[in-house]
Design goal:
By secondary structure, the protein is mostly helical. The chain has a domain of 179 residues. It is built from 21 helices and two strands. The chain has a two-stranded antiparallel sheet with strand order 1-2. A hairpin with a 2-residue loop joins β1 and β2. It is globular, with a radius of gyration of 21 Å.
């Protein structure tokens, strides 16, 4: 049974994807039911294995593709960190998407690829080897492209092509790195002895550059990030999926796997690769924040914020000290909770008040107080102020930087927090303290109650989770911080 659990978890999103593709457009209730049943089924399955993984058990399914090369699904503590995030946010994003796209066109196509995207993300989380990871990584690329281009207009098609060009180029680099490495040492499984340390150091440096560069496209590392702001033409549920659940997190998670489980932290340090990786992440953090300052479109400002925020994960990975590693891993969860809330709220503003630009939010806190309170909580968290989850991430990254002797990182974190304040606080000020000046003051056609509930309740749930993750960070072992600490101290610590 333990060997079948990874397959059961994968099937909760793969089976709905297949079913939904064959549903007629008119089958609205059936399509919604299939979506929700799949999302709801995944949560207890993930919960079922929490205790086992915490106790050190692994859940593994292995199938031989060709002699010497296996398709391997394995759930360990690091897998479960990413898997839990995707399971929780998939349910809420599904509820949101059903409301957002109510009466929209091509819903079977949209929700089919939506579920396929989540299946790919689930597979990435559970991959136990480089080749398995790559197969799901490519499935993620191909399943998200139709979502980016969903509206079908010229701008959406152009953005989809931009996205595809970047991500396929990144996948090519990743594949070259995998083939080169496995040609040197044989098939590579995560958390397994591969003999990699005996390979030529210069060869390993080039392989590392190819693999991290390829993964860095989806992780939106500078200068490989431009597809992400361009993809903001997609509907808000897709933006939430790209930024918080799937694509950028797959890239960051892949880099974590390469550093922790392919090369190993000790070898990365010996090869002199950790600090350069942290430096690239640090530059991306500042660059993304500076670009966010210049955006007047709400979703594009949030997109550049993602460019900055995801690199906190990579920064903690590159610093390699235990505390910094905990800060980077826990930010994988914290950033997902906070950023999905912000995109949920941006979509609700667009659907309810037709607000797309920052200059239009004046006074909307009085019209949509619950939505804008959720937005405000997570904006404060992004800045890094207590008691929201973002503060915990930055505290551990800063402490870890001191522990690793990289004091310069403190200036990066402080500068990023100042820049975050500069691009989030004006939105909050306009929302709560400026009088309404936008056209939304005129009577608008009220949305159906079910649609309003579907747009607002997921944002409230993720905002509460963001706040709880900060307030209850010390609640061991199943808080995000507790789980990240377990991963590092048990599996990757000195």
């Amino acid at each position: 049974m333990t060997g079948m659990l990874p397959l059961l978890i994968l099937s909760t999103s793969l089976v709905p994807a297949v079913v939904i593709f064959f549903l007629p457009e008119a089958a609205t209730r059936v399509r919604a039911a299939v979506n929700l049943i799949g999302a709801l089924a995944k949560l207890p399955l993930v919960g079922l294995i929490l205790d086992g993984v915490a106790a050190g058990e692994q859940y593994e399914l292995r199938y031989t593709l060709v002699p010497g090369l296996d398709f391997l699904l394995r759930i360990d503590a690091l897998s479960l960190l990413f898997l839990s995030l995707s399971a929780f946010l998939w349910l809420l994003t599904t509820l949101y998407a059903l409301a957002y796209l109510r009466d929209g066109a091509n819903q079977s196509r949209f929700f089919g690829f939506f579920s396929l995207c989540v299946a790919a993300t689930t597979g990435i989380a559970m991959s136990g080897s480089l080749i398995t990871f790559f197969l799901f990584y490519e499935l993620l690329t191909l399943s998200t492209w139709p979502l980016v281009a969903h509206r079908g207009d010229a701008r959406s098609i152009a953005s989809g092509s931009h996205y595809l060009a970047y991500t396929l180029a990144g996948s090519t680099a990743l594949l070259l790195g995998i083939v080169w490495l496995e040609g040197q040492v044989g098939p590579v499984e995560f958390a397994a002895q591969t003999g990699i340390a005996g390979a030529d150091p210069n060869t390993l440096r080039w392989i590392f550059l190819l693999m991290v560069g390829g993964l860095g496209v989806k992780a939106a590392l500078f200068p490989l990030h431009s597809w992400l702001p361009a993809a903001m033409v997609a509907p808000a549920p897709v933006s939430a999926l790209l930024h918080a659940v799937a694509v950028v997190k797959a890239g960051a998670f892949g880099i974590v796997r390469v550093v922790y489980d392919v090369f190993g932290i000790g070898l990365v340090t010996d090869l002199g690769l950790g600090v350069p990786l942290a430096a690239v992440a640090s530059f991306t953090i500042i660059y993304g924040s500076l670009r966010a300052l210049n955006q007047s479109d709400i979703k594009r400002r949030l997109a550049y914020s993602t460019v900055s925020q995801v690199s906190y994960i990579i920064l903690g990975t590159g610093l390699a000290g235990p505390t910094a590693m905990i800060g980077g891993l826990v930010h994988l969860i914290h950033q997902g909770l906070m950023k999905v809330t912000l995109f949920f709220c941006a979509g609700a503003l667009a659907e309810t008040l037709h607000i797309y630009r920052i200059q239009e939010v004046d006074g909307c806190g009085r019209r949509m107080p619950v939505t804008m309170l959720a937005f405000s909580i997570c904006a404060v968290g992004m800045i890094g102020l207590p008691p929201v989850a973002g503060f915990v991430s930055k505290w551990y990254l800063g402490t870890g930087a001191i522990e690793a002797g990289q004091i310069w990182v403190l200036f990066v974190l402080a500068g990023s927090s100042v820049l975050n304040a500069l691009y989030f606080l004006p939105i909050l000020y306009r929302t709560w303290f400026r009088p309404a000046t936008g056209t939304w003051r005129e009577p608008l056609t009220p949305l159906p109650a079910a649609k309003v509930w579907g747009l607002v309740s997921p944002a409230v749930a993720t905002a509460v989770a963001s706040l709880a993750s900060g307030l209850l960070a010390a609640a061991q072992p199943f808080s995000p911080l507790g789980w990240a600490t377990l991963i590092v101290t048990r599996d990757y610590g000195p």
